[in-house]
Amino acid sequence: MTDDDILAELGFDLTPKKVRARTPREERIIAGFEDIVRFREEHGRVPQHGEGRDIFERLYAVRLNRLRAQADCRELLVDIDVHGLLDGATDADAIDDLDDRELLAELGIEPDASNDINQLRNVRSNADRQAAEEVASAKRCEDFATFKPLFDQVQADLDAGIRTTRPFVRDLGMSKADIKQGEFFIVGGQMAYVAEVGEPIAAPNGETDARLRVVYSNGTETDLLLRSLQRALYKDEGGRRITEPIAGPLFDGAAKAEVEPDHLPTGTLYVLRSRSTHPTIAAHRDLIHKIGITGGSVEARIAGAADDATYLLAGVDVIATYKLYDVHRSRLEALIHRVLDPVRFDVEIPDRFGKPVRPREWFLVPLHIVDEIVARIADGTLAGMTYDPQTVALVPVNLHGGSLSSPTEKRLS
Questions:
Q1: Domain that holds residue 88
Q2: In this predicted structure, what is the pLDDT of residue 171?
Q3: Are residues 29 and 71 in the same domain?
Q4: How many angstroms separate the CA atoms of 264 and 8, rounded?
Q5: CA–CA separation, 395 vs 382, rounded Å?
Q6: What CA–CA distance (Å, rounded) separates 227 from 234?
Q7: pLDDT for position 255
Q8: Same domain, 92 and 40
Q9: pLDDT at res. 123
């Protein structure tokens, strides 16, 4: 008799058992449970919860509770549960329908995706999480409509390069970076505006603190302490301070003699008026102005205007010029165009080859408003202003409420 015959006589079933193919989810469940089994064999106990426990033990404890609570998992693992781990009591508070990555996030860990899960990075302390929670505990801002134009303006300034962002760091001398009313920051991925600063109060460490009203670009607000916002900005790798829109000194021809030698001329701001005979332009000739900045001469800039669609295919008259010194030309031009955007003369005209062109530097604005804009640039008060065609005046953006009329749209053929 062969060995198989002997085994058959003894009653052993020699028919090969079919091995069922497992799904990727089942493979992950088995692999995760095997980690728990190894922990039990190495430590002689099941993994447990608790702040004082090793982070992986806490992970295994949460995973075990989840496996105990799911019947399909218990059925899958019954053959390898040699220690009866699935028969224990379940901690209902620890069960959550999360995958391993989400479980790690719940435990305050951000795994490096480029490495194995055992390679941990950025493990936050309780103090770090508490500081983040102070910023995150925001409520709905009921009067957000008042602040939204401010956020829109700052975002437009950032896009145009008028404003920039800088890391929020301690000042020279290791003093704390200051926070003032009216400033903008980026914290927790949101733009934040310090709308109010309360009365100074004494902090437990002897320093001065204050209660703030901070409005966020997502329509929420908080009343956190000034020191809490400072801590959140220090700890946030993306925490930034948004600068004020500073273009640089500006001097007109009369003040040129007062310019110090180290102030170098960097361009000319010009205001032009079209000679076009088109009925729409002729009817508003005293209001339609082209406003721009050139680093060369204005005369060279407007040469050939009659053949250039950006000059409305007509000659132009130079109405006013202003000399610029130590100024970033493109940023200043973007700032002026942003202030006048509500009255941009939006036109579309064909060039010499019939291709449509939309000039962007023409505005329906009286000359005295341009003079006021230049004066405000010189004294640094243009920030936060916009032109209101209803009152024919420059007004603060937050008082305007964003209810500007739509830009004038015309098609010239």
A1: 20-123
A2: 45
A3: yes
A4: 104
A5: 10
A6: 10
A7: 41
A8: yes
A9: 52
Asked if residue 8 is part of any domain, the answer here is no
C-alpha 161/C-alpha 331 separation (Å) is 6
Same domain, 105 and 137: no
Positions in the chain whose pLDDT score sits under 50: 92-97, 106-116, 120, 127-128, 131-133, 135-136, 171-175, 247-263, 399-413
Pair 94, 152 in one domain: no
Tokens of 109: 């860990």
State the total domains in the chain. 3
Q: State the Cα–Cα distance between residues 226 and 214, nearest whole angstrom.
A: 10
- The answer as to whether 391 is a domain residue is yes
pTM over the 0.85 mark: no
Q: How far apart are CA 343 and CA 365, in angstroms?
A: 7
Task: Give the pairing of strands 409-411 and 346-350.
Answer: parallel
DSSP 15-37: PPPP-PPPPHHHHHHHHHHHHHH
Q: What are the φ and ψ backbone dihedral angles of 389, each rounded to 5 degrees? A: -70, -20
Domain-terminating residue out of 123, 138, 158: 123
Establish if 401 belongs to a structural domain.
yes
Q: Which residue in 264, 232, 231, 236 sits closest to 248, CA to CA?
A: 264
Which 3 state secondary structure label does DSSP give 211?
A: strand
Tell which residue, 176, 297, 161, has the closest CA to residue 228.
176
Residues 201 and 264 in one domain: no
What pLDDT, on a 0 to 100 scale, did the predictor assign at position 216?
92
- H-type helices in 70-199, by residue range? 71-77, 100-106, 126-136, 144-160
Q: Give residue 194's pLDDT.
A: 92
Whether 189 and 293 share a structural domain: no
Same domain for 85 and 115:
yes
376-395 exposure pattern, b = at least 16 Cβ within 10 A, e = fewer: bbbeeebbbbbbbbeeeebb
Residues 289 and 226 in one domain: no
